[in-house]
Amino acid sequence: MVQMHKNSCNLDFCAVVAVSILGHESAMPLLGVYFHRGGRLMLIHLELPHRYEVESLAETSILAGSEVFQYRAAHPGHDDRPNLLLRFRPEGSQPWIGSFSSGSVDPNAPSMVISSPNPLTAFVIAAGDAYSVQVDSPGSFQMLPVSPVLFAEALPQQTVVVLGSANALAVYDPKGLCWFRRVVNDELKLESIARGTIHFSGLDAANGKSVSGSADLDTGKEVA
Q1: Which of 4, 25, 150, 157 has the fewest CB atoms within 10 Å, measured from its CB?
Q2: Residue 120: inside a domain, yes or no?
Q3: Domain residues for 82?
Q4: How many domains does the chain fold into?
């Protein structure tokens, strides 16, 4: 379910949106700002403490001669896919522009910027391709292990972010990656996160049936 309220913005369309994880069902809807360009939506969701601002850009808004940092996935695939363009404004540092290659695995995967548990690190998801970027040092980045990222949950009380693909989960806290684990064969669905436990379901491809499971939020260990 998506509830939209228009808001003024220098873009084709901008809206404040309450959304259940980009079409992914969840007990905890993300509240963020969606930018719409060329038929695609991009979510900016900065719920965790952060020391920067970020905005979506169109190629036409970049001035000639501007320095643009290029970010590419390990296996970028087709070069004809549009890059995700973002302008970051870190506290105490100069603004900079990043161009993120997108959709190397699934061009229809979502695009979003999520504040990470580190106030100076942003998680950039460009059509599923996932980057961790140090915003006050834009030359420092790494690819996230989940590919493609299909959904995300920010948990402000625990200062934790949960990222998921079609079959795997990754959990980050202020120290970095807590754990990354394949939990189902396919069609991973996040059911809920409660009392330190992640509840999920998915497909057992070998037997052609749905399965469900639980994992400890801190360790990733299976919970009976």
Answers
A1: 157
A2: yes
A3: 2-216
A4: 1
